[in-house]
Amino acid sequence: MTTMKPYKVESYDSYDSPDERRPILEGEFDTYEEALAFSKEMVAKFIREKINQGQSAADAANSYRYGADVPMIFGGGDDDESFQPYDYADLIAVELANSKT
To answer: Model-level pTM?
Structure first.
């Protein structure tokens, strides 16, 4: 018997219209922290690729808004924390661009 883990990360693409979006199960996790780390790495990977292609931090974050898979964390029920992928994209874009110089 398979036991469901309490947290799951699903993604949707930011480039289709809302009617065309279908969530994709990216993973299931035992803790919120594991789901959060996974979600942050999904965002960072996209931003890192754009910066390595020569985009500025602002352009990489903007590219994320309009052309990426956006993770969402579900489960747990009473977590005060809520992951905001677009806010994180803005933050990590600046950090990654600054670390490249």
So the answer is: 0.86
